[in-house]
Amino acid sequence: MKMRVIEGGRSDKMTTADPEAANSTVALGERGETLVGRIAADISEKIIQGILPAGADLNSVELAKQFGTSRTPVREALMLLEKEGLVEIKPRRRPRVARVSWNDLEEIYIIRAHMNALKLALVVDNASEGALLESRRLFDRMKAAAERGDTDRFVAERKDLHDFWASICGNKTLETALANWQLRLSLRRIAKMTAVHIERSISDHECLLHALEARDRDLAASLIRSMTMTGLDAVKDSGWGMPPGNNS
């Protein structure tokens, strides 16, 4: 028998008969790097894209067959998505897709805006000159992808830049919290990334880099807060979801 530590300090026995389950536990910030993370990422993308509509049942047996695994990592993936607000799990009922209204989405972006502002303020306080040079290098890669017209690469490079800032901000709790807000990735995939959006993003990030290099804490925080809320506008432009004010 192996012992697995469960959240809250409780331990649970787990046999090695299910190797997928043995390797499925997701640590904070590791979604996407494990079997559970991959399952959660796939399900969340289908939810955001509307392939799995609000209220749809999520049958763990069928999902296990779909992913070629046991039910254990599927259940853990659904529990992870419940924490992110994408899945509802009620006692003695099958998990189902949660409803995400425009009000919910706006609240998510407001929280993200303030978290990002804190992140960039801390980067100004803590980043070395070498880290700022690395930020510039990552930005150049993002810009090059945009100039090639490679939208997917542009989004990936932009994520790398923001993840790098989180890693150097000097606050591990904030870094972990940002890493667990994976809803932002799915929303970016469905947002209509027009040439105008990309051009504005490049311009905004250029200004942000100048603020970091000038060690202007207030300006960096203000810029990233505004940029985050601009991301919400891009999602609205994509025509995703329910109209503003609809809480049903």
UniProtKB/TrEMBL annotation:
<dbReference type="InterPro" id="IPR000524">
    <property type="entry name" value="Tscrpt_reg_HTH_GntR"/>
</dbReference>
<dbReference type="InterPro" id="IPR036388">
    <property type="entry name" value="WH-like_DNA-bd_sf"/>
</dbReference>
<feature type="domain" description="HTH gntR-type">
    <location>
        <begin position="33"/>
        <end position="100"/>
    </location>
</feature>
<dbReference type="InterPro" id="IPR011711">
    <property type="entry name" value="GntR_C"/>
</dbReference>
<keyword id="KW-0804">Transcription</keyword>
<dbReference type="GO" id="GO:0003677">
    <property type="term" value="F:DNA binding"/>
</dbReference>
<feature type="compositionally biased region" description="Basic and acidic residues">
    <location>
        <begin position="1"/>
        <end position="15"/>
    </location>
</feature>
<dbReference type="Pfam" id="PF07729">
    <property type="entry name" value="FCD"/>
</dbReference>
<keyword id="KW-0238">DNA-binding</keyword>
<dbReference type="InterPro" id="IPR036390">
    <property type="entry name" value="WH_DNA-bd_sf"/>
</dbReference>
<dbReference type="InterPro" id="IPR008920">
    <property type="entry name" value="TF_FadR/GntR_C"/>
</dbReference>
<dbReference type="GO" id="GO:0003700">
    <property type="term" value="F:DNA-binding transcription factor activity"/>
</dbReference>
<dbReference type="Pfam" id="PF00392">
    <property type="entry name" value="GntR"/>
</dbReference>
<feature type="region of interest" description="Disordered">
    <location>
        <begin position="1"/>
        <end position="20"/>
    </location>
</feature>
<protein>
    <submittedName>
        <fullName>GntR family transcriptional regulator</fullName>
    </submittedName>
</protein>
<keyword id="KW-0805">Transcription regulation</keyword>
